[in-house]
Write a structure and sequence with these properties.
Length: about 250
């Protein structure tokens, strides 16, 4: 997240569907719906449906960010999505939720992943979050914050890496994003940024293989329903509980 920097998207500071497969296994059915949704979302001229409390990743809780911290869009129709940007909050899960709900903050990411693996979505992937400090990269990316501090490797837990990898794998599948370091980048790699996150302790050598493994499991479950339901949260727009509790559970 980090200190505020000029975000040319707004001229203010920055810091920090579907079919049912009733007879199929739950995880596999969700994956099949996600595949259809991914294709449908690319239909030009369609205003994607909006429902209060809906999330794009089935394991996430919804907590709305302030509308001052994002811009309504109709992605990927109006802006193609070809990047996932990894951030670190430089604070607790609860503090990140709080600042993203603050209209004066001027910034927010689509998701926050906690040390315990919980995922909160605060902005729909359809919309442009002010998270990268660069208008072009805001428009073309999904931003994921991770609870912790860049100088504390112990903050990057197994549960966090695994949950984040599942989330990123689904995002990459939805928008046909290559799972590599050109397309999954750190905030520090955004042109013009003065941020350093996710920092030297974020283990890219571990993370990218985890994303690829999650994507492979998803593809296998989609191809072979007999493999059973997903072991992790699934993608696709679903109704979610409105989660001020998602913030309150943080110590």
């Amino acid at each position: 997240m980090g200190e505020t920097t000029n975000d040319s998207d707004r001229g203010i500071s920055r810091r920090a569907l579907f079919i049912g497969g009733a007879a199929a296994a739950v995880g596999t059915a969700v994956l099949a719906r996600d595949e259809l949704a991914r294709l449908w979302w690319r239909t030009p001229g369609v205003e994607k449906p909006r429902k209060e409390g809906e999330v794009d990743f089935g394991g996430a809780h919804w907590v709305a960010a302030s509308s001052a911290n994002w811009r309504r869009a109709d992605r990927p129709d109006d802006f193609g999505i070809d990047r996932v940007i990894i951030h670190v909050t430089q604070g607790s899960f609860k503090s990140a939720v709080k600042v993203f709900q603050d209209p004066g903050h001027g910034a927010a990411a689509h998701y926050i992943v906690g040390k315990d693996g919980r995922i909160t979505q605060m902005i729909r992937e359809l919309d442009v979050a002010f998270h990268a400090g660069n208008r072009e990269f805001n428009e073309r990316s999904v931003g994921i914050e991770h609870e912790g501090f860049v100088d504390r490797p112990q903050d990057f837990t197994d549960a966090m890496y695994e949950a984040s990898a599942r989330l990123t794998a689904r995002i990459c599948a939805r928008y046909d994003i290559s799972i590599d370091r050109e397309h999954i980048i750190g905030h520090v790699e955004v042109p013009g940024t003065d941020h350093t996150d996710p920092g030297p302790h974020w283990d890219w050598g571990r993370y990218i293989p985890l994303v690829r493994a999650a994507a492979k499991r998803d593809a296998e479950r989609t191809a072979d329903p007999s493999t059973g339901p997903s072991t992790g949260p699934s993608g696709g727009a679903t109704a979610a509980s409105k989660s001020t509790p998602a913030a309150e559970r943080d110590a």
